[in-house]
Amino acid sequence: MTREEMDLLVDRVVRSAIENVCGTMLGCPVEIGETTQIGYPLQESDGVVALIGMAGPWVGMGALTCKPDLACRLAGAFLLTEYETVNEEVLDAVAELANMVIGNLKVTIEEEVGEMGLSTPTTIFGASFCTKIGGSQEWTLIPVKVCDGDLLIQVCIVPNERSRSLQRVEMAGHMVTRI
Amino acid sequence: MPLDVLVVDDSAAIRKILQRVLVQTELPLGTILEAGDGLEAIERLKANNIGLVLSDINMPNMDGIELLSQMRQNPQWKSIPVVMITTEGSQQKVLEAVDLGASGYVRKPFTADQIKEKLSGIV
User: Fold this and answer.
1) Cβ separation of B17 and A25 shorter than 8 Å?
2) Tell me, what DSSP letter sits at residue A47?
3) Are A36 and A134 in contact (CB under 8 A)?
4) Non-local CB neighbours of A15 within 8 Å, separated by 6+ positions
5) Collapsed DSSP state (helix, strand, coil) of residue B105
6) What three-state secondary structure class fits B23?
7) Which of A59, B45, B88, B119 is a Cys-bridge partner for B57, taking CB atoms 3.0 to 4.6 Å apart?
8) What percent of chain B shows pLDDT beyond 90?
9) ∠ CA(B107), CA(B112), CA(B116), 5° rounding?
């Protein structure tokens, strides 16, 4: 499978998965925007990020990013509870949403390239921080409007021989991490 | 006699949703207990008279496949129905779980009706 074919597969599966997850577990419609590719891995954030790694014949990472108020609304729709601030339950709900979207992607990728492993989600919440993945791989960015907010889904996956640079994740700034 | 149920998932969110769904099913279920991974599940199994297990596969410390394997090797637990509820929908994982004696399989995301339908054939 080529990088171009993988990019197309990621785009198709992530779109389908987020629609399915939001429709089934949140009971709310989604509006999926235009997919873009970025060649630099530095991302500035001031909200909630859920990260999940994938490893096997191809290796990479998926991330869901959103502002705190959207994280609270997503968790509220997920757990049928109102949340005014980001707490453990909100972080856990966002992590599980990421797990379902990236998990569905991983299962489909497996059908094409062979067995893949999936990490448990890591959730980061902070006022101002950067996430940086070593190397210069392209990321697929898929913006989603859901629950009156903007959710960004980011995926980077490359053939395993280029995986070494993906192993280093550098994060700076004030953050709270839950693994 | 109602069956006590053990819900095993490292996500507290999923455990909470499954608790709600299980109550909604109106099946003859008793107490619903929780565990965050396979190791905790083993402790709950030792301390309680569990009649049904719903388990994730991908968990830290001890995953759902290892939990199922240990249950099937234990004479006290080997006949307890275990339903796998997970994003791990790969053919290999499904076959592994079936080989070990899983009673069913539901892929996340799930609806309450899917859970009820799966459990109706077991409870």
Assistant:
1) yes
2) S
3) no
4) A32, A142
5) strand
6) helix
7) B88
8) 68
9) 90
Average pLDDT over residues A99-124: 91
Single pTM value for the model? 0.85
Cβ count near B23 (within 10 Å): 11
Strand partners, A153: A64, A142
What is the model's pLDDT at position A173? Answer: 44
Tell whether the model's pLDDT for residue A85 goes beyond 80.
yes
For residues A47 and B118, give the distance between their C-alpha atoms in angstroms, rounded to a whole number: 38
Interface-testing mutation among A20, A79, A109, with chain B (most B C-beta atoms within 10 A): A79
Rounded-to-integer distance, Cα A115 and Cα A113, Å: 7
Give B57-115 pLDDT, tens digit per residue: 888 999 999 999 999 999 999 999 999 998 866 677 778 998 999 999 898 889 889 99
- Name the minimum distance, in Å, from the CA of A31 to any CA of chain B: 19
Question: Shortest CB distance from A93 goes to which of B13, B60, B88?
Answer: B13
Query: What are the chain A neighbours of B38 within 8 Å (beta carbons)?
Result: none
Whether residues A107 and B20 touch (CB distance < 8 A) is answered with no
Is pLDDT of B43 > 50? Answer: yes
Mutate to test the interface with B, among A48, A78, A100 (most CBs of B within 10 A): A100
Task: Record the tokens describing residue A163, joined without a space.
Answer: 């995986």
For residues A57 and B122, give the distance between their C-alpha atoms in angstroms, rounded to a whole number. Answer: 38
Residue A4's beta-bridge partner residues? none
Which chain A residue lies closest to B10 (C-alpha atoms)?
A120
